[in-house]
Hints:
Elements: E1 2-8, E2 11-16, H1 19-29, E3 34-41, E4 51-58, E5 61-65, H2 77-80, E6 86-89, H3 93-103, E7 110-112, H4 113-118, H5 127-135, H6 143-146, H7 157-168, H8 170-183, H9 187-198, H10 222-242, H11 246-249, H12 252-260, H13 278-293, H14 312-336, H15 346-354, H16 359-362, H17 370-386
Parallel strand pairs: 2-5, 3-6, 6-7
Antiparallel strand pairs: 1-2, 3-4, 4-5
Helix pairs in contact: 5-8, 10-12, 10-13, 14-15
Amino acid sequence: MITQKTIKSNQSINTITSKEALSKLISNALSKNHLSIDIEGNGFFRYPERVCLIQVSFDNQAHIIDPLAIDDLMELRKIFENTNITKIFHAGDYDIRSLNRDYSFTFKNVFDTSIGAAFLGSEKLGLDAILYEYVQVEIKKDKKFQRSDWTIRPLPDESIEYAADDVLYLSETRNVMEKRLSELARLDWVKEECTRLSQIKFQPKNETNAFFDVKGSIDLNPRSLAVLKCLYEFREDEAIGKDRPPFKIISDSVIVEISREPHQNFSEISGIGNWANRPNLQRLKEVVEKGMDMDPQYRPQKNKQRLKGMTNKEREKANIRLKQLKEWRKNLGQELKLDPSLLWPTSSLARLSRFPESFEEECEQPEVRDWQIKEFGDSISQSASNL
């Protein structure tokens, strides 16, 4: 089924809720050389999160695909993996990961307007700021929609219009950006960055070690980490059972505080909420007791093999060299009017500061881009070796 709504004289929104309507949309899209894509998820209200809307736009039409109404979306592969169709996103990392997570979709030939804006020196990279800067379109990105429960049906008209705004103007924006990037000889830079973006895949979290990533837990001792592990797993089970995100079950700050001082009065902890009720409090105490009976948990150590064998004098020289390399990058950023972090990875500068003779090896590191080597390789190699 297709429901059509006109929002401006030359624009319309189509809501796609059937397999037949989706097939018709895809058949039409296959004749285009570019289209815009965005999604809406329900991560603020449900757990695990899932994709609730897929917005596709071309020819001044926004097509709002409802994954909750259509059982089989696999036909979308025909456009997502088509190398002849440019898929335009804005800050597409989340969208690409989410679509890969839920449907195993992959993408080829991607352009991201947030990446384009960054390489044009834009100071603000939000969609509303980008649209105003490049195509003089004003849209309101109300946070109430960003944190809406997109699972709810039927969706209000204002929610559908909000979703449509995310894609309706990306094509025009991309055209303006590509022209300016070409004039600055930076289009190839952005193309490589977008190719990297297109290759992103969803990586499930390692459930065994996920508790180490809880915010605020970095200074917990091994005994407290054992308690945190049990609290984290308890929270995960509660979140899945209640279909609510973990932060709405019990916050990171609360489970970290309990882990740090497991003998305290939990009901007095700031943010404990309904867990201060006697039945819930007893459940928390049982989880904590289980953690206290466990073996201590030790945080995995980062690989520092390359640092071994350095003398204090060598470390001092490396620190000076790193400072100077960062100064080189900062000056280059000022010259090009770009964020310096775009020009060469900080992790690479750190390695070069310790091993300035290893530039060729450094160029093989995955975070170093081909365009960076081509544009700045000679300069940074000389800078590192001369310091």
